[in-house]
Fold:
Amino acid sequence: MQLILPFLGMATAASAASILIAVGQDGLKFIPESVTAEVGDTLEFRFYPGDHSVVSSTFDEPCVPNSPAFFSGYVPGDPSGSVTFVTTVNTTDPIWFYCSLRKHCELGMVGVINPPCDEALAAYKSKAASVAVASAPVVIQGGCLIDIPSETPNSGGRRRGNSVESPLKGTLEKCLS
Structure:
């Protein structure tokens, strides 16, 4: 069973990574769609213009929230990608995710953290295409929706280590209090 929990205000290990995932920066897609993460890493879903969301799911039920799910709420985004949903990875099992707005999931706006094999994402997209209507939780959960200053990198990628203090530090403490 996968479990994603929000930050608990504790310091993370020096080896923890912040994994950046662009939401809607290039149309109906997440960039990157597939990444590998370790326990303790954070996922930073950066929202670009156009309404989108990010919801966790299972492989067997695409476009349907898992339990417990993370959900960003519906986010309009902005050109700089500063509106960000942040969650912490607590498993190395696959974590499937999708955009629940309109037909975005059914049209292939999906992704996976820790894919079980190279073909898995294509199979998940195929299953999602046959879903009648995507669904989502009622409230934001499993993470924090914050605004990250525009000077931080805002496209898909990975940062590891503690050589630079995270711009999220104070913001996350406020978000969780």
